[in-house]
Amino acid sequence: MKIRPLSDKIVIKKIEEAETVSKGGILLTGSAKEKPDYATVVAVGPGGRDDNGKLIPMEVKPGDKVIMSKYAGTEVKIDGENFSIIRQSDVLAIVE
């Protein structure tokens, strides 16, 4: 299945970098782990529009590694894989 985001939306796949054991040696369960804030961009929409209807182009492209707001977006499952759909404004930086 292919997904095509609308407007200023971005489909991302989170990069799991959270540790499973704390520095003190305590095993962290899934709910206690820090949510990842790094992701890879999978697909981008055409861009949003300002109040005058002018197209605001997207600054990210598929394949970019980004840092995003921790609890941004909506999680979806497509073909057994987990993705999130976020707004471009939830992207804090592109990792180069």
Account of the protein in words:
This protein has a single domain, classed as GroES chaperonin (10 Kd Chaperonin, Protein Cpn10, Chain O). The protein is 0% helix and 40% strand. The protein has strands at residues 9-14, 38-44, 48-49, 55-56, 65-68, 74-78, 81-87, 91-95. The strands form 2 sheets. The chain has a 6-stranded antiparallel β-sheet with strand order 6-7-1-2-5-8, with no helix packed on it. A hairpin with a 2-residue loop joins strand 6 and strand 7 (81-87). The relative contact order is 0.29. The mean pLDDT is 86.
The Cα radius of gyration reads 15 Å
Shape: elongated
Strand content: 35-45%
Top CATH class: Mainly Beta
Q: Provide the spatial order of strands within the biggest beta sheet.
A: 6-7-1-2-5-8
* Uncertain stretches of 5 or more adjacent residues: none
CATH superfamily: GroES chaperonin
Query: What are the secondary-structure elements, in order, as H or E?
Result: EEEEEEEE
Instruction: Let me know the largest β-sheet.
Output: 6 strands, antiparallel
Q: How many distinct beta strands?
A: 8
Number of helices: 0
Number of domains: 1
CATH architecture classification name: Roll
Mean pLDDT: 86
Fold-level CATH name: 10 Kd Chaperonin, Protein Cpn10, Chain O
Separation of the first and last Cα atoms: 29 Å
Binned, the helix content reads under 10%
Output the structural class. mainly beta
